[in-house]
């Protein structure tokens, strides 16, 4: 993960159907984390090696050229559309651990802007002349 800092992995909660921890681990690129879901491009769903290479090159471009607070699919645009089928929505309640880079649109763009009030007071000309 040190060589590929944009990759993340999720460890899902214990499930009797998948007793092996390796089966409960999902590796990929997180698109967005909300209070209820983690949207992640799952690397295991990519079908061919050449498709994985294209995916990794686009993600590397996103990592190198953006501030990484913008989701990869928004930054890359239409070139990322072929990987939409690998996008998974995992409920937060079913996740034990999240490791790696996380994108959270709400934190990035949801900050409230503080409004400051500035008042200009017009002074009478007689006061301005006395100051000069």
Query: How many strands?
Result: 5
Class by SSE composition: alpha+beta
Strand order of the largest sheet: 4-3-2-1-5
Q: Could you spell the SSE succession in H and E letters?
A: EEEHHEEHH
Count of separate DSSP helical elements: 4
What's the number of structural domains?
1
Question: Can you describe what's shown?
Answer:
By secondary structure, the chain is an alpha+beta fold. The protein contains four helices and five strands. The chain has helices at residues 49-65, 72-76, 105-109, 125-131, and strands spanning 8-12, 25-33, 37-42, 87-91, 95-99. The model has no long low-confidence stretch (mean pLDDT 81).
Give the gist of this structure:
It is built from four helices and five strands. By secondary structure, it is of the alpha+beta class. It has one domain.
Helices and strands in order:
Layout: E1 8-12, E2 25-33, E3 37-42, H1 49-65, H2 72-76, E4 87-91, E5 95-99, H3 105-109, H4 125-131
Antiparallel strand pairs: 1-2, 1-5, 2-3, 3-4
Give the key terms:
132 residues, 23% strand, alpha+beta, five-stranded antiparallel β-sheet
């Amino acid at each position: 993960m040190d060589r590929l800092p944009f990759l993340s992995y999720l460890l899902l909660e214990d499930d009797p159907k998948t007793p092996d921890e390796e089966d409960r681990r999902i590796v990929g690129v997180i698109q967005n984390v909300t209070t209820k879901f983690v949207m992640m491009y799952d690397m295991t769903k990519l079908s061919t090696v050449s498709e994985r290479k294209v995916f990794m090159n686009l993600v590397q471009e996103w990592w190198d050229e953006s501030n990484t607070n913008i989701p990869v699919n928004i930054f890359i645009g239409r070139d990322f559309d072929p990987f939409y089928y690998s996008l998974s929505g995992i409920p937060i309640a079913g996740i034990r651990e999240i490791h790696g880079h996380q994108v959270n649109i709400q934190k990035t763009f949801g900050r409230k802007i503080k409004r400051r009030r500035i008042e200009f007071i017009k002074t009478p000309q007689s006061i301005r002349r006395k100051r000069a």
